[in-house]
Amino acid sequence: MPTNFTVVPVEAQGEKRDPAERDAQRQEEEEDNRDRGPTGDGIARESSPFINSAEMDRGNMYEGKNMALFEEEMDSNPMVSSLLNKLANYTNLTQGVVEHEADEDTKRKEVKVPRMGTFIGVYLPCLQNILGVILFLRLTWIVGTAGVLESFIIVFMCCACTMLTAISMSAIATNGVVPAGGSYYMISRSLGPEFGGAVGLCFYLGTTFAGAMYILGTIEILLTYISPSAAIFKAEDGGEETEAMLNNMRVYGTCIIILMAVVVFVGVKYVNKLALVFLACVILSIIAIYAGVIKTAFDPPDFPICLLGNRTLSKRSFDICAKFTESNNETKTTTLWRLFCSSSLHNATCDDYFSLNNVTEIQGIPGIMSGVLIDNLWSAYSEKGSIVEKKDQPSVSGSEDMKIGGRPYVFTDIMTYFTMLVGIYFPSVTGIMAGSNRSGDLKDAQKSIPTGTILAISTTSFIYLSCIVLFGACIEGVILRDKFGEAVNGNLVVGTLAWPSPWVIVIGSFFSTCGAGLQSLTGAPRLLQAIARDGIVPFIQVFGHGKANGEPTWALLLTAGICEIGILIASLDSVAPILSMFFLMCYMFVNLACAVQTLLRTPNWRPRFKYYHWTLSFLGMSLCLALMFICSWYYALIAMLIAGCIYKYIEYRGAEKEWGDGIRGLSLNAARYALLRVEDGPPHTKNWRPQLLVLLNLDCEQLVKHPRLLSFTSQLKAGKGLTIVGSVLQGTYLDKCTETQKAEENVKALMAVEKTKGFCQIVVSPSFRDGISHLIQSAGLGGMKHNTVLMAWPQSWKRTENHFSWKNFVDTVRETTAAQQALLVAKNIDLFPTNQERFTEGNIDVWWIVHDGGMLMLLPFLLRQHKVWRKCKMRIFTVAQMDDNSIQMKKDLQMFLYHLRLNAEVEVVEMFENDISAFTYEKTLMMEQRSQMLKQMQLSKNEREREAQLIHDRNTASHLTPAVKASVAASVPEKVQMTWTKEKFVAEKHKNKDTNVSGFKDIFNMKPNQSNVRRMHTAVKLNGVVLNKSQHAQLVLLNMPGPPKNRKGDENYMEFLEVLTEGLDRVLLVRGSGREVITIYS
C-alpha cells in the first residue's frame, strides 16, 4: 500500500526549532562527546600516515550533524574530505632523509614541492652515472682483446641485464611513492627487511667501491696521460713499472680520497651543482669521438706505429722507428739500435729477433674505410707479460736466449679471457638507479622514472654498441690491445681517434671520473644512513646520526675507510669485478622483487608502468646470477656469503618490521599450497610426531602460572613439528578484548624466552570448560592440527574456588579421548627442569602398564634429543600378573625394543594378588565421605541460590504496572494457592533441618563402594611398586587410566590419580590416542 511522505531539508528542520532548545541540545551533545572519550569503541586502530599524522580541530570535524552517526569514530576514521585534503597536501621526501614510514610521519618537515622533470631529474643523472671511466680507459682494450664480435656479446649481455632490471624497477617505482633510499627502499619494502638490509648493504658496498674505481681512474689518467712526471715512485727497471704504478696509485689515491671526503663534508651542495659540469665533459668527449670517426673517413689522423717483425714497440724510449739513419751520406745507428744491441757500432752484438726482422711503420688509425674491421672481428686473448703482436705480419722467430723484459716492447699487464672482461666492463652499465634515488625531487616520479631510466639505458647502450663497431673499424688491432697507449707516444688510445684533439678526451674523462667519485662519496653515505635509520641492522645504527642539517658524518667516515681498501688494491681491473658483484646482486633482487609481486598478485600491486611481465623479471634475475658467476665465481660466492650473513644477522638480531613485503606473501602462498597438499587424514606411523596443543593457565594479571610447561614443550619438540600454545579467558570477547591482547603478548614473550617455536591462541569463552573444548576442537588448520594435548595437573583441584577444577580436568580427558588425541599431564610441573639445566646422570623411567600405541616409548626418545635430558638413561618397567611368565616377558620386551632401535634397560615387576589392606579401605572411605559431603554442601548452596532468586522475582513483580501484571498473569498457567500458617512454617523448617542432619549422619555411617575399593587398591599397590623402583628417577612416565564411564565417580577418579602418583617428584601421565605411533619397520 503506497505511503505519502514529505521530504524536509535538515537545515529547515533545525530552523523551525527554538534557538534556546538548539543551544541546550548542542551543549548536551558536547558534554556527551567529552564523556565518551576519544574513540568510539576503545579499539586501537592501525596507524596511517594520513589518518593519525596531525591533530584536527574538533569543531571543524563535527561541523553539522549530517554525520552524527559516525562521530564516535571520527578520531580514528576521519571524513573522506579531510583524508583527500591530506593526500593533496602530501609531498615526497628529499633524497637523504629518512624514508617515508607511517609511524614516523609526525616527524616529517614540510618541503618545497619538487619541480624537476624527466630530462633533468632522471635522464641526465642516469646518463652521467652510466657513462664514465670504463668507456674512456678500457673499452678500446676490451674491443682489441675480445674482438668486435665477442665485445658486442659482452656489451649486449650487460645492457640487456640493465634494461630488464630497469623494467622491473620501473614497475616497483611506479607502485606508490619511493622516498629516499631508492633501490634499498624498493627491495626492502618488496622483499622484507632481511633481504632489504642484506641487498641494501651490498648496494652500499658496490657504490663505495665504485668511488674507489673512479678515483683510481682519475689517478691513471693523471699519471699516465696528463703528467707522467708527477709519479713519486719511478721504475728503475722495465719489469718494475707495474709495481711502481700501483704504489703511485695508493699514495695519490689516499690523498684524493681525503680531499674528496673533506669536500663532501664541507659543501655537498657544490658537488650537486658541479654535476652538470661533469656531465657536460662526458657528453663533449663522446661527441669528439663520433666527430673523430667521421673525420677518419676522409682524413685519418697521423699516429704511426713502430713494429719489429710482428711485435709492437713502445715509443716511450725512442723517436725514430728505424735501425739506421742516413745523415750526410753516413749511416748511423738509432736509439732503437742501442736498445737491442750491446753498443752503437754496426758490428755490435744484437738481439737475435732484432737482427732477423725488419722494423716497419704502419698507421695506428687507418680509418673507417680501411677494412681493418675484418682483422679486429676475432679475439686475441693472451697471457700476462706476453708481447702485443700484429696478426698476419711477417716475422722470423729467433732464439729467445736473451732477456726480453728490458726491451721496448708493448707487454700485456694481466692475463685476459672472456669472463674476466665481462667483470671489468659491467661497472660501465651501472648507475641506472640514479633516477629512482632522486624520486623525491621529481614533479611526477611515476611518469619520469620509467621514461627517463629506459631512455638513458637505450642511449648509453647505443653509444657502447656503436663505439665497439666504430673502434674496431677505425683503429689498428695492436693499438686497441695497447692498454696504456705506449705505441702512440703514451696517448690515451680513444683520444687518438677524437677530434679536434686527444686532449678533449683526456681532460673530459679526467673531470668526469672526478665527478663520479664525488657523486659516489655523496650518495653512498646517504644510503647507509637510510639503512641505519631503519633500525633493522643494530650494529650500524650509529651511522644514522649526522650533522644538524642531516648530513651523514659518521657514514661518510666509514665510506671513506672502505673506499681506501679499494684504493690500496690499486688496480682498476681488480676493483671493477668486486663492485660488479655487489651491483649484480642488487639488480638480481630488484628483478626478484618484481617477479614475486607479480606472481603473488597482491592487491596493493598496481604499478602505473604496464610494460612489465614476470617472465622478463625472471629472465633479468637469471641473467644477473649468470653474469655474477661469469665475472668471477669466487667473488660471486663471497658476495653471496656476505649477503647471507647479513640476512641471517638481521633475522636473528634485527628489529622486527612489518612492511607488507612480498616474501611474507610468498610464505603465505607457500604455506597455503603446503597445507592443501598435506593430507587431512592421520599421517603414516613413520611420520608421526607429537603435534602439541599446550593448555596454559593464566593468573589475574594475564601471566602464565606455570612457565615450566613451555620449557618442557621446547625440550620435547626441539623446534620440530607443530606447537599451539592456548589459553582460555572467561567472559565475552567484547569485554575481554584488551585482556586478550595482553595475554597474547605475555604468552608470546614467554615463548620467546623459552625458545618455544609455535603459535599462540587465546580464546575468550563464557566458561573455561567451553573454551578448552573449543581449543581442542578447532585449534590448527587443515592437516596442520594437533594430535596431542599437554597440560599441567591441577594441584589445587580440591579447592572449590579453583577455576580449573577437577570437573574441567576430567571433561578435558574425556574430550581428548573422544577426539582421538593423545594426552600428556605433567604433575608437579614447577619441579621440571628449565632449558638451562643439564642432568648429568639419572634415569627416565617408563612404567608400561597398558599398551597405548607406543607413546610411552617415543616420548623418552624425543626428550633425550634435548641437552637437558641427553645424559639420562631410559628404563622401561612393565608389570607381570600372577599368570604371566615374567622371564619370557622380559625377553620379548628386549626384542621389541631392539627392533624399535631404542636403547633401554628392561625390568619386569611382579605384582601378586593379596588381600586388600585396611589402609586401602580407610582411604576409599575418606574419599567417598568427602565426595558425599561436597554434594551436600553444593545442594545447600543451590537451595540458597534458588531462595535468593525467588525473593528477587517477588520484588520485581511488586514494581510492575497493573497492565504488565495482567499480561504476566495471562501468560503464566494457574498454580495451586497455599496459605502458610505459623505451624506449617515451623514444621517445614524442622523437616529441612532433620533432613540435613540425617544426611550428614548417613555420611559417617556409610560403607565404601566395592568397585572404588578395588580401584584404590590398584592405585595404592602400583604406587608402592613405582616408589620402590623410581623414587629417585629424574622423570617418571606412567599410563594414565581413563575416567569412569559413570560421571558420578569423577571426583573419585581424581583421588585415584593423586594416590597413584603420590611421593613422586616429576611425573608425566600419558594417555594414548588409540593409534600406533611407533613402528619396527623402516
Automatic annotation (TrEMBL):
Q: Does the keyword Cell membrane apply?
A: yes
Question: Segment Disordered: which positions?
Answer: 1-56
GO molecular function (one): potassium:chloride symporter activity
**Known catalysed reaction(s)?**
K(+)(in) + chloride(in) = K(+)(out) + chloride(out)
Protein name, per record: Solute carrier family 12 member 7
Membrane-protein topology: Multi-pass membrane protein
Outline the extent of the Amino acid permease/ SLC12A domain: 122-296, 416-693
Per the record, the domain of life is Eukaryota
